[in-house]
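Quick question: what would this complex look like in 3D?
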Amino acid sequence: MPDLLLELFSEEIPARMQAKAADDLRRLVTDKLVAEGLVYEGAKAFATPRRLALTVHGIPARQPDLKTERRGPKIGAPDAAVQGFLKATGLKSLDEAKIQSDPKGDFYIALIEKPGSAAIDVLAEILPVIIRTFPWPKSMRWGERSAKSGSLSWVRPLHSIIATFGPETEEPDVVKFSVDGIETGQTTFGHRFMAPAAISVRRFEDYEAKLKAAKVVLDPQARKDIILEDAKELAFAQGFELVEDQVLADEVAGLVEWPVALMGSFDEEFLSIPDEVIRATIRNNQKCFVVSDPKTGKLTNKFILTANIEATDGGKTIIAGNERVIRARLSDAKFFYETDLKTNLEDRLKKFSQIVFHEKLGTQAERIARIDRLAAEIAPLVGADVAKAKRGALLAKADLLTEVVGEFPELQGLMGKYYAQAQGEDAAVAAASEEHYKPQGPADRVPSNPVSVAVALADKIDTLVGFWTIDEKPTGSKDPYALRRAALGVIRLIVDNALRLPILNVARAAMLWMPGSADAEKLPSDLLSFFADRLKVQLRDQGARHDLVDAVFSLGGQDDLLLVVRRVEALGKFLDTDDGKNLLAGTKRASNILAIEEKKDKRTFDGAPDAGLYRLPEEKALASAIDQVKSEAGAAVQREDFATAMSAMAKLRPAVDAFFDKVKVNDDEPKVRENRLRLLNEIRAATRAVADFSKIEG
Amino acid sequence: MDALPAHMRPERSFQGFILALQRFWAEQGCVILQPYDMEMGAGTFHPATTLRALGPKRWNAAYVQPSRRPKDGRYGQNPNRMQHYYQFQVIMKPSPPNLQDLYLKSLAAIGIDSSLHDIRFVEDDWESPTLGAWGLGWECWCDGMEVSQFTYFQQVAGVECAPVAGELTYGLERLAMYVQGVDRVYDLNFNGRDGADKVTYGDVFLQAEQEYSRHNFEYADTTMLFEQFKMAEDACRKYLAAGWKEGSNQKEHLMALPAYDQCIKASHVFNLLDARGVISVTERQSYIMRVRELAKACGEAWVHTEAGRAV
């Protein structure tokens, strides 16, 4: 079966857009083929800085024929209706129509056969539409034609299109179409500098091979592999190690058609700058890799660049040029770093009173003061030294106004740590600068140093309470202040460090210092349910049961997140046992019966049952089991021993089962009935020692 | 090309470097203009780019434009940052299909051989909030150094470009430093001579950098500048209003260029105020908006002038 080769050759496509564009091209073309009845065997798309290419193989040469039936007028219908039917269906006379009977009468039916089109004709129709409506994140017009409206928009000027179609064994045909004056053909071009001549291609195999001969590696993955392998080898040859960077390798693979790794060096004096700053300088600005010395684990004064050509001098000029730029960049970075070191972090703080954090939440200085106070409140609860926590909080944001962080925002916190260390701060105080931002996401490390934990919690809780105060909560997919991440950070800090933190109290304390006013009752509980939602999401992501979170929070007053999590875990384990499952079923049955009867009688059945009204041994047995379980489970919960509380619950199960087996709740005698309903209510009440079973699914 | 005297070779002298670029673009049919006689932050502000980019008429031009960025002054201390430097600007409307090739040939003309150097087009979307303009294109890299800006204008002064113009901006000092192999801009050989006859970039501009840095950061008269901003803004609006030809029903404008001069003026005055640190973050935004409104009104007037409208 025939194959399609499509190439869209343009001026340089931004690196960050290439992978998605290749994928979009494949998806759009193949979806459309399938929609047209052309089921293909396989497809693969590629991108280089100057081209998008797609190969689809095993496309049927023709669409299948389509047979449709069309119902016409009744037999004996007026002539106008008959004529209309003939015209619409292309039949010459009614003799060509079938007659079909149904309960409404006999109707003429036309059988219409639509022969499938040749695949090449279908392609000639669908491809230009896909090109014209291609989903580039940003596109532009250019040249003479841009004077007219409706001219083609592409990511950068599009120069030529290859579209060939044909079976492996034959000379393929060009899929003929044109887009904005660009006629399809079989011609492309090689490397911009090393092989700029036109190349004529027939199909994917010779396309890829001829490009390679013309110094173009079509497959981005292959370019990335070459870059990383050559870079590693260059480093290794000198006894060093490449600092691997997949993201950078992907980006660089999108900047070259013919990767050539070259190694350059910089003056050793720059190694006095922290490694992270050197790396950020070389990586962000110059798209080069850094190299480390395996003996020290530190960076060495080498870097690896990826050129797009094999230069005639073996790369000497290119290396020299890159070294010049990197020298200038590093000398800026060194200047920034050394300038920063001259100013004490504390002396930077006064400037924060001129920087607005949020118009309704005051300046950064006010925010730092709040975090400082809150960290002091939290410190004793997390085993941190109060003075160190306050100091850590005071300095944690000070690096935001340093030169290095201004240049490389991703180094915030880390630079604070270095500057704090340099001015002789306590190690825990210095660490808090870096660690108070953590954890940044579900994969990030959770700090365990108590000072860092106190400052991290204070920072996040201040943010959450602040935005709650001014009613800027996340909605749907919008969470501009990353409040969900902050809440998840709080949860992970508490749970991973097994902290006992009364979150409602801490939130109330944070509220006291907020500008403006908020509902002191409502806000903390709203915030607590936000934590509950985050906890559910986290448990769901971990594959755990998230409905149990509601079952625990529904008990009320649950603001100790660590206990909530432990209770949820114990409950989950219990519900995995037969005892748990049956008890849940029994409790649900009790609740359902109660709900029906409460509705019927328009009253509840609260209050202790009357032992004198028990008529059957199963009633008595259940009552005593409930008493026993209540006291055992209650005591275990008091001890925060949820596993024991759950196994106490298990003892309820046989009594509940036996009760439902032998006892008819709706006894004829109203007093007995009421007493039994009260007993059912007691089952519900007893289980509430561990969770609200009515919120559990299943 | 005729044999150049040694002192005029682009790799020897800054002036030879500029002349080589001018000569190259003159050969491509560009009119070679002289710098506009007003202070501006970038060559794009020159009416030969901003206004001529609008409207359907062909326009190919190249020129050197001093670029004044008061905030970038470093009292002559920084090896490559200055409050006054030169840009070489090329504008071709409509953008020719081989503009990238022409650009690469222009590099060859100033001594940058693409078989020795690694030349790259790296994504860079250009936007000028003050001009109400944007375009897509690249930073052009030579061996890891950004040496030019390459933009296909999509919109200028709030008006869609039809057809689109291609714009090239060369950072002249930086390129010349590379070609001459010097690390400090003030060490550039300006006239290509040796010994006592040699004039460096520092001989010409170092004192100016020191003086203007003092002026821009410390002494520029802010009361006067605030006043000048207001005056330029008012004058621009006045000229625009008065420029509509009587009876043309706002179809024909006769004073777009003088009005636009006042927009350039306002923009530079704003840059000076910004360098003096007397404009707060919130005010900053509103000043930029005010300049943009002027630029847009000028663009609107321009497309109703002889040079700016359809024939």
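Answer marked as accepted. Chain B has two domains: 6-215, 221-302.
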